[in-house]
Design a protein that fits this description.
This protein is mainly α. It has three helices and two strands. About 5% of the residues are buried.
């Protein structure tokens, strides 16, 4: 039986279906055959990683202990791989949300730029409208002054005209007679 390791290499699997690294199998065999610390050092396995094996235990008990230890290590490796997958998924989700947020920020910045341009255009139109209003108000003041002046002049002329009527000679027509013009 073979199993697929995280790096894609195929390795022999234990009878329980769990993949076992070749180096670890060689280390166990070397330990069983040699039974020394030199075999552990040669295989790269630390003595603290393996359960304590008493010299007086028989060979089958040692194999069972080592197999149980290997299965425990395989369980830890599977848990670690699952945790890595979960962390990778969380990281990818966070990166996706970050990209979406960055796009939203860029969109909002573009809208803000358009709003600022629109505001500047409106402020310019308002300033122009205020100038026109001020000119119109000035013309209105001048027109009102002219109206008042003309009104005063008209009233003065009317008064002068009333004064002339009183001083003029009486009408040569006879009172009660009607003048008809053909």
């Amino acid at each position: 039986m073979t199993g697929l390791q995280p790096n894609g290499c195929r390795v022999a699997a234990s009878p329980g279906g769990f993949p076992v690294r070749r180096g670890l199998c060689r280390a166990v065999l070397a330990l069983l055959v040699l039974g020394s610390e030199a075999a552990l050092a040669a295989s790269g396995v630390q003595a603290a990683e393996l359960p304590a094996v008493a010299a007086e235990d028989d060979l089958s008990a040692q194999v069972e202990r080592l197999t149980a230890h290997i299965h425990g290590m395989e369980g830890k490796l599977k848990e670690s791989a699952a945790a890595r997958r979960t962390a990778d998924q969380a990281r990818m989700e966070a990166e996706r949300r970050l990209a979406e947020n960055l796009q939203e920020i860029a969109r909002l910045n573009a809208q803000l730029g358009l709003l600022r341009e629109a505001q500047a255009a409106l402020e310019e139109r308002l300033a122009h409208a205020q100038e026109q209003h001020n000119r119109s108000a000035e013309r209105l003041v001048v027109a009102e002054e002219q109206r008042c002046r003309l009104s005063r002049e008209g009233e003065a002329q009317a008064r002068r005209g009333d004064g002339l009527d009183l001083r003029s000679d009486p009408d040569p027509l006879i009172s009660g007679a009607t003048l008809v013009i053909p």
